[in-house]
């Protein structure tokens, strides 16, 4: 297991799905941040410098994760939408983002994480 696995912020409002994603990521050696179920909680973790990459469900309880995506884009933190939505379902600035269809199998999930990890601006271990 590599010491250089990125810390993954999981933003998902369905508890069972969030726990399933988190447990699969942990089993693959990824440190998981959260999961959290709101944009405000996600932004707090991002502001605290906790997340290296992120997986975002778009539809959260009565809100969307698009403000979180804006914050991640502004900070250069790689992320993917993990959702039933596709690129045509989001505003134009997010159409070129990575989409992982839900429900995601282990291969799709881990391939997406490997892609996100390769996009991190600072990949060296401290």
Can you characterise this structure?
The mean pLDDT is 91. A hairpin with a 2-residue loop joins strand 4 and strand 5. It is built from four helices and seven strands, in the order E-H-E-H-E-E-E-H-E-E-H. The chain has a five-stranded parallel sheet, with helices on both faces. Strands 4-5 form a two-stranded antiparallel ribbon. The protein is α/β, with parallel strands linked by helices and 126 residues long.
Provide a short characterization of the protein structure.
Helices cover 36% and strands 21% of the residues. The chain is α/β, with parallel strands linked by helices and 126 residues long. The strands form 2 sheets. Strands 2-1-3-6-7 form a 5-stranded parallel sheet, sandwiched between helices. A two-stranded antiparallel sheet has the order 4-5.
């Amino acid at each position: 297991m590599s010491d250089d696995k990125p810390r993954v912020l999981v933003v998902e409002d369905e508890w069972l799905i969030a726990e399933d994603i988190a447990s699969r990521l942990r089993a693959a050696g990824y440190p998981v941040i959260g999961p959290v179920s709101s944009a405000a909680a996600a932004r707090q973790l991002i502001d605290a410098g906790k997340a290296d990459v992120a997986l975002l469900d778009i539809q959260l309880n009565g809100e969307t994760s698009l403000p979180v995506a804006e914050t991640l884009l502004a900070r250069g933190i790689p992320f993917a939408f993990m959702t039933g939505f596709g690129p045509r379902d989001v505003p134009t600035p997010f159409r070129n983002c990575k989409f992982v269809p839900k429900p995601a199998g282990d291969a799709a999930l881990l391939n997406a994480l490997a892609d996100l990890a390769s996009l991190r601006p600072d990949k060296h271990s401290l």
